[in-house]
Amino acid sequence: MENSIKNEKDKVLGKVKESLGKVFDDNEMEFEGKMQTIKGDIGNKLEDIKEDVLDKTNDILDNMKKRKELK
Fold this sequence. Notes:
Number of strands: 0
Organism: Anaerocolumna aminovalerica
Radius of gyration: 20 Å
Strand content: under 5%
Pfam family, one: CsbD
Helix content: over 70%
Protein name: CsbD-like
Shape: rod-shaped
Domain CsbD-like: 4-53
Family: Belongs to the UPF0337 (CsbD) family.
Mean pLDDT: 95
Number of helices: 2
Number of domains: 1
Order of helices and strands: HH
C-alpha cells in the first residue's frame, strides 16, 4: 500500500513538473517530469507483478497442501 501511494505521488509530481517545464520552456524540468512519471508507472507495474506472483505461489502451496492431505 505504501509503495502504491509513493508511485502515485511520483506520477502526479511528474506530470506537474512536465507541465511546468512546458510552460516555462525548461526542457530539463520537462524531462525530469517525464522520467518521474515513468518511474511511478513502472513502480505500479512491479507492484501488480508482485501481487500476481504471491497469489500464484499461494495457489500452488494450497494445492500441494490439499494433495498431501488426500494421501
